[in-house]
Specification:
CATH class: Alpha Beta
Strand order of the largest sheet: 3-4-6-7-8-5
Strand content: 35-45%
Order of helices and strands: EEHEEHEEEEH
Shape: globular
Number of domains: 1
CATH topology: Thiol Ester Dehydrase, Chain A
Structural class: alpha+beta
Radius of gyration: 17 Å
CATH architecture: Roll
Largest sheet: 6 strands, antiparallel
CATH superfamily: Hotdog Thioesterase
Helix content: 10-25%
Length: 164
């Protein structure tokens, strides 16, 4: 697990990420994620992350060894969240392209970079590669919320409007 993983920060100081006095940062989000399914962080800097996804039998979609695209998307989403690295970051939209198939045994390298910051919004560019072949490209739009998304009572407030 990535929980309490210590990483040296060397990138964009304009991003609002907590940095320790010795220039180390810690992963602040998605600490309990299953890295076997979503990839393992190899490098984390301010606004930047590299994740490595080892494909496994559990990800296979057919008898040819094709990896279901949802696992690549999940790893890309995890990379985007880690690049933002805020405790309460959530995905609100994405635009992505699956450019080449991924097969059993492939190691997928995912690179995510925060490209735009406006208030609580962050746009993250994500690319994934198998060796030198780009297999995925996406733009992930995220929002940093004040509280955990499950504590925002979004459904409760929608129901209150219906009662009025």
């Amino acid at each position: 697990m990535a929980k309490n993983k210590k990483i040296v920060a060397t990138r964009d100081e304009e991003l609002d990420v907590e940095v320790q006095e010795d220039n180390t940062i810690y992963l602040s989000t998605h600490e309990s994620i299953n890295q076997d399914l979503c990839g393992e962080i190899q490098k984390l800097e301010l606004g930047y992350v590299e994740v490595e996804l080892m494909t496994t039998d559990d990800m296979v979609a057919d008898d040819m060894g094709l990896i279901h695209g949802g696992f690549v998307f999940s790893a890309a989403d995890y990379a985007a969240m880690a690049a933002v690295n805020e405790r309460n970051v959530v995905l609100v939209a994405s635009e992505c392209q699956f450019l080449s198939p991924v097969k059993l045994g492939d190691v997928v390298k995912i690179i995510a970079k925060v490209r735009h910051k406006e208030g609580r919004k962050r746009n993250v560019e994500v690319e994934a590669f198998v060796t030198e072949i780009k297999v995925f490209s996406g733009l992930f739009k995220t929002v940093i919320t004040e509280r955990h998304v499950l504590k925002l009572n979004l459904l409760d407030s929608a129901g209150e409007d219906d009662k009025k």
